[in-house]
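[audit] Reproducing an earlier prediction to check determinism. Same input, same settings, fresh worker. If the tokens differ from the archived copy the diff job will pick it up downstream; this log only records the rerun itself.
[audit] input (168 residues):
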Amino acid sequence: MRVNYLSKKETSTLANRIRSLYWGDRLRGKIRTAIEVRENGIKLYRIGELIIGEIDDKLYPVIHERNQDVLNELPAIIVDMGAVPHIVNGADVMRPGVKDFRGEFNEGDLVVIRDERNLKPLAVAIALAGLEECKAMKRGKVAKNIHHVNDKIWKLMRRIGHILEREL
């Protein structure tokens, strides 16, 4: 595992990348420093109050208490309780398990997968179709799971919580 403080230039570049995303407005004020954690192909950043993951050059908010505001603003796909064990084991979201949609989204947008009972975030996924197309579907994949509870990223965050909680 490698933990680095990013230089001012790297921090500024990362902050601009995040702010350019439709959910990036939560990164407020002048950001002076950021922490980068790398392990086995996993990249995590602590920048401002957010904890961000990166996969294939795509940034996304991870499931963590610090990101609750961002996760609550993202569109959501609500799944039935029968789909929950599959989602938290990394399965993609299939249309028959979807109960509801919250918010507007297009193909390729980030969505939060939530359970129907508690509305807790279970996963962050990439929508494979737009909202209207998803509603019209009867079967097939609706979203690709990129991060979920109990995956490698989740376990890494639990192990290095003391690093991610440092004052920046």
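[audit] rerun output stored. Observation attached for the diff report: The mean pLDDT is 93.
[audit] end
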